[in-house]
Specification:
126 residues, alpha/beta, five-stranded mixed sheet, 33% helix
């Protein structure tokens, strides 16, 4: 249901000690996507807070100044569907010309830099 050619999903938990380290990188990536006419509308980025409720997500977003959308997965159903990965975990899902969603790449842990995240995005979207 999400429009676009590439969906980037970060899976995290608000109590994860290392997860906030991804926020500045993903904020910069989100802003780059939103401000680039070649990417805006074609690439979507959001996070899923596994095991967290709306109040926990609201507090996390405010504390860490998260710019991108964050959904909740309070009962871990999405997390389980994804194979219960350790957090943080990012999934790059590319939509084929026939409309089929394919996991094009994944990243476990903290991104080293914005450049690393953008390089992954660029390799997939080309």
């Amino acid at each position: 249901e999400i429009p676009g050619n590439l969906i980037i999903i970060e899976v995290f938990n608000t109590y994860c000690v290392s997860c906030p380290k991804n926020v500045p990188i993903l904020n910069k990536l989100y802003s780059a996507i939103e401000n680039d006419p070649k990417l805006n509308g074609k690439v979507k980025l959001f996070s899923i807070a596994v095991g967290n409720n709306q109040n926990e997500v609201k507090g996390y977003r405010n504390l860490h100044k998260v710019l991108y959308p964050v959904l909740t997965d309070l009962d871990f159903s999405i997390h389980k569907t994804l194979g219960s990965p350790r957090v943080p975990y990012a999934i790059f899902v590319k939509r084929s010309a026939k409309g089929k969603d394919i996991v094009a790449d994944t990243h476990s842990g903290i991104f080293d830099s914005y450049d690393e995240a953008m390089k992954m995005l660029s390799a997939i979207i080309k």
